[in-house]
Amino acid sequence: MDKDQGVIVAKSAGFCPGVKGAIDKVLELEASGKKPIYTLGPLIHNRQVTDMLAAKQITSVDRPEQAADKNGVLVIRAHGITPAFRAEVLQSGMEVVDATCPLVKHAHDVISQYAQQGYHTVIVGDSGHAEVIGLLGCTQGKGVVVSGPEEAQKLPSFDKVNVVAQTTQKESVFFETAEVIKQKSAICQISNTICHPTKLRQSETIQMAKNADLVIVVGGKHSANTARLALLCKELAPAVLHIETEEELTPQQVLAPKHIFITAGASTPNWVIDQVAQWVRHTRANRGFAFMGMLQRLWAKGVSYSFYTAFAAVALTYVCMKLEGLHSQIKPLLFSWLFVFSLTTVNRAFEDKARPAGRLSALTGFIAAGLGLWVAWQMGGQVFALAAAFMAAGLLYPFRHFLKSKMLSLPGTKDFFTALGWGFSCAFLPAFANGMMLRKALYLAIFYAVLLVFMRSVTLGFTSANKDLMIGKESFYKAFGFGKTKLAVAALLILLTSVLVTLLLITWKPALVGMLLLGNLYTIFIVIYYYSHPASRGVKEETLIDGQFFVLWLLAWLSRFI
Ligand code: SF4
User: Fold this and answer.
1) Domain residues of the chain, as ranges?
2) For 394-421, what is the mean pLDDT?
3) Which of the 8 DSSP states describes residue 427?
């Protein structure tokens, strides 16, 4: 549980395993770029995620016939479908990927098993909900849906009945309803099919909402499980707000309550929850300090819109130029800023949905790229040609699927290409522009920049994954998992430290190398901190991670006085 400013965020908030699994499957299919993807109904009821899927041309259809391209892939969403509809879908001739949640499948099996033995089925849930329609399809025509004990009272008596729950049902409603049916049936099987993640979410909500003055429930207005969570909270807390994003909140709503509890439905991505929590905490932290609040918001914008990262690249360029024995020059520093700003902005606009995205962002990135090329041109024709090649490769990276190149989708390539791009602009280009090739200092600077940026990129990928940022397998962490990522970053840190210690021992630029070794401590601290306290990517995390380049810049600058 994360407590700060009297604001507690539920541990269980965010995607449930079923929804996460379905989204991961769809994004992996999309990343392979093979075929158009169609989901049978919206994948989840969350506007931010459905907007993201629409931007990736992932279309929702109700039936296979509605798919414009019959060579596409049909994805059965986490809610599942009826056995009859499944048979139709399989006969459609389209490739079918089943992303039904295993816990929903379990409910299907329980219903089918008893239906085969002649049991009637009573489903406690929302009639018309996609999952309930799927459950009803397993009852062999002997099923009925009730929303609670009142409707159960109106049912006839049964010889043999199996009572099951929609997986996101409130437990108390399910048991009260089952009790009513039991009273009027000869044989009554009570099958509690409420899934474990829902039980956890409900028990945490019951425990925490009781002690809160305000509960904020984050999630789609059309999401049944979020609406049910909000209803549960209304029974427990004096005030409840059901919102989709922080934009629906006003400072007045969050300033007065002493204790605020934030929770979310199973279809709400963690990055949306984080944005709400961050906004509420900032607002509460800055009551009476309007100026500070404004500064914080400006800072957050600077980080979100990649300005800060671009300045971090300038800091690294300065350090590399010191390693190469060059005096700092404005053109390579300016080029680094424009290069990293343009590539980060364009890539985020198309790939990273937790960031300000869209056409305006992409346009700003392309304008910066144009300016970057103009600066490169000022450094000479050859510099321009190389800069144009790297710029084009970086800007086209989000569209790599069109190339159908396996190499571009290899595990971890995204982090590697990011590091390569920074290595080019921060270390290679300044030396190349100064006619300084084939020198050991240049190789060392490239090695230093690529290694640092690779570790930064892998660590950001790790924090992004904690936030459900929908990153693909090209990210090292997504491809190799927690253990191997930690091991790889630790090995790279040891390698970097060993190289710096060796340089110090052979007294190669001892003042500068000694200072960089000192700066290495900051990097080690950040890495240990993030991998031992898995955090979600946010303004603070990016500020700290990119902060290493400013620390190194300061230390490199101070080395001139030693
Ligand atoms: S709510 Fe439970 S059953 Fe439904 S998709 Fe999520 S984990 Fe699966």
Assistant:
1) 2-13+198-287, 17-99, 104-194, 300-561
2) 73
3) I
